[in-house]
Write a structure and sequence with these properties.
107 residues, mainly alpha, Arc Repressor Mutant, subunit A, 7 helices, 73% helix
Length: 107
């Protein structure tokens, strides 16, 4: 049951990853639960809030896009970040490198 719930979360996020408006509210609505129930379940199952899970999944997608040769602006857009500057800030916080440096060091 818990695995099915997490699988549903990942599927919804992956299917809508490029949407800047992908949010906890959107995720909760698609799972037919309240925001607080969603956060409580995800916290219990993964130790992370819904917001952090969405952001981390977007950053993982961004890493894949950078590795495929996309530039930073295009990657930010395709990974569903509203602005390139916010994307760079989040990426650096998560991976401890800027997207440009990361793509140079890991290509």
């Amino acid at each position: 049951m818990e695995t099915d719930f997490l699988q549903s979360v990942w599927t919804i996020i992956d299917d809508n990853i490029d949407e800047p408006l992908l949010s906890v509210e959107y995720l909760a609505s698609n799972l037919a639960v309240s925001k607080s129930t969603l956060n409580r379940k995800l916290s219990t199952l993964s130790g992370l809030s819904a917001n952090k899970i969405i952001k981390q999944q977007k950053l993982r997608k961004a890493r894949t896009l950078l590795m495929s040769g996309k530039n930073v602006s295009e990657t930010a857009y395709l990974a569903g970040f509203g602005t390139s500057s916010y994307f760079v800030q989040c990426f650096k916080e998560f991976y401890k490198e800027t997207p440009k440096t990361y793509s140079k060091n890991h290509s």
